[in-house]
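May I ask for a single protein's sequence together with how it folds?
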Amino acid sequence: MRKYNYIYLFITFILMAGISSCSCNDKKTPEEEPVTWDVPEVADTIVDLPRVKVNDTISLKGTLYHYKYDFHAVDSLPTVQSFSGLEYHDNSVSLTVRSDSTEIFRKNFTKASFKEFVPSKELKKMTLTSFNYFSAKRDDTSRFHFLAKISDPEESDEYGYFIDVQISKSGDLHIEKAQEQDITTMPLNYEEEEAE
């Protein structure tokens, strides 16, 4: 009789162990799921921001001035890796201002042209992401204003370092940090051209 009790206890133990092991294989609740992060795949190509070419005129005290600029990626500059893992060419912009047939200003700008306005650690991770006529400053009839932006190439319009590039009517250059209240007036959107 005692022998049968041990067998009965042994069988009961085996059955209980089997039932508890089955319940462990049930689907885990969301709280028990391990947390995983999607790591972006690094692309094997380098991305270029769209090329922008502009020809336009500005009137200062009744005199028309003609300006043109070409914003484009430059493969000879060091590349920058964005937060998402994509690699970007840095950019350059060549700006020319003329009065009638007289050229009063010509210069090529890269992000290095604005290094005093951006902490060096951040400058290495950013690109020159845009350059436009600074429409918020059009009432200043003493000089021309252009707005340069240094930022992560995937950052939204309102984030980054904004620099006011000023050119006098005689062609003198002055660069300073753009005022916060002026940045809210975004520049005109010009038609983009594909990079050559």
